[in-house]
Amino acid sequence: SKVPPIILNNGVEMPQLGFGVWQVPDDEAEQAVGTALEAGYRSIDTAAIYGNEEGTGKAIAASGIPRDEVFVTTKLWNADQGYDSTLRAFDSSLAKLGLDYIDLYLIHWPLPSKNKYVDSYKAFEKLYSDGRVKAIGVSNFLPEHLERLLGETSIVPAINQIELHPHLQQRASREFHGEQGIHTEAWSPLGQGKGLLEVPAIVAIAQKHNRTPAQIVLRWHLQLGNVVIPKSVTPSRIRENIDVFDFTLDTEDLAAISALNEDRRIGPNPATFDIG
Ligand code: NAD
């Protein structure tokens, strides 16, 4: 594949760049994921709440790519937290995807007010020991939630998938993950495309390398060691976003992007988010 892997803390390989499908309707997911697989993506990031596990699964089946060459992530929705309900939600996701195992299963949000993420994670450990999922992890966990998980469960999460882009660089989380052997995965790596791709410093670096701003931002993530899952339904952008393995940002470029941090979230704060 075009995309080099990272090695998760249990030895499993995961492509460092994958394809995100949030907000892609189920009937468009098959085509978008199909285009991504054709373009060389071998990792797909979906979730039960996205409502497109079926379309995603159809695209994987139709691609003819051997199952062990595609890395599939899905996520446990908030309403399904709890030990037994997690096991049922997993079965439902697996059936919708049409698969017999999942590569990476994540707790979508911690919902600290509901106090169920430890029980949910214990169900993840059961799924892992039964071989139904190759790696388990979390999403939107703050260091305090990870601390509790590490204290009360036995398997260190392989991944914490968090909002991360040049305006929200998450230095404290990244440092904590590094100490614990957890890989950081960036959601909304392009800041959802909005103002970020017009920031003058990023546009200037793009011109210098004869690349697009999106490619510069993705390259910054990769050189930091983040796993990234950019989303697009536009075929030319899908191809553009994976075409980032034949150039390198220099230390000056990296410093200019690192100077853009504003600790500004687009999405909800995990400490208080409790929908579902
Ligand atoms: P993103 O940062 O990937 O931005 C996607 C948007 O950027 C596109 O809709 C498009 O408008 C624009 N874009 C994409 N490629 C472009 C290009 N080459 N040039 C110009 N514009 C471009 O945002 P996202 O979809 O929010 O995040 C990516 C993935 O992360 C999601 O699809 C999903 O899989 C995951 N995610 C997870 C969570 C979570 O809570 N775990 C939350 C949000 C997203």
Topology summary:
Layout lengths: L4 E3 L5 E3 L3 E2 L5 H14 L3 E3 L7 H11 L7 E6 L6 H15 L4 E6 L9 H13 L3 E7 L3 H10 L6 E5 L7 H10 L2 E5 L12 H10 L3 H12 L2 E2 L6 H8 L8 H8 L18
Parallel strand pairs: 3-4, 4-5, 5-6, 6-7, 7-8, 8-9, 9-10
Antiparallel strand pairs: 1-2
The structure holds nicotinamide-adenine-dinucleotide.
Descriptive key words:
binds nicotinamide-adenine-dinucleotide; eight-stranded parallel sheet; alpha/beta; two-stranded antiparallel sheet; 276 residues; TIM Barrel; 40% helix
Write up this protein.
The protein has a single domain, classed as NADP-dependent oxidoreductase domain (TIM Barrel), CATH 3.20.20.100. Helix content is 40%, strand content 15%. The strands form 2 sheets. An 8-stranded parallel β-sheet has the order 3-4-5-6-7-8-9-10. The chain has a two-stranded antiparallel ribbon with strand order 1-2. A hairpin with a 5-residue loop joins strand 1 and strand 2. Bound molecules: nicotinamide-adenine-dinucleotide. Nicotinamide-adenine-dinucleotide (NAD) binds next to helix 9. It holds the Pfam family Aldo_ket_red. Its EC number is 1.-.-.-. One of its GO terms (molecular function) is oxidoreductase activity, acting on the CH-OH group of donors, NAD or NADP as acceptor. Belongs to the aldo/keto reductase family.
Shape: globular
- So what's the CATH class? Alpha Beta
The rounded distance between the terminal residues' Cα atoms is: 37 Å
Binned, the helix content reads 40-55%
Small-molecule binders: nicotinamide-adenine-dinucleotide
Which secondary-structure class do the elements indicate? alpha/beta
The count of helical stretches stands at 10
The low-confidence runs, each spanning 5 or more residues with pLDDT under 50, are none
CATH homologous superfamily identity: NADP-dependent oxidoreductase domain
Main β-sheet, in a few words? 8 strands, parallel
Give the spatial strand order of the biggest sheet.
3-4-5-6-7-8-9-10
The succession of helices and strands, N to C, reads EEEHEHEHEHEHEHEHHEHH
CATH topology value:
TIM Barrel
Instruction: Assess the beta-strand content as a share of residues.
Output: 15-25%
Estimate nothing, just give the exact number of structural domains. Answer: 1
Kindly report the average pLDDT value: 98
Binding site for substrate: 108
Active site: 50
InterPro entries: AKR, Aldo/ket_reductase_CS, NAD(P)_OxRdtase_dom_sf, NADP_OxRdtase_dom
Family: Belongs to the aldo/keto reductase family.
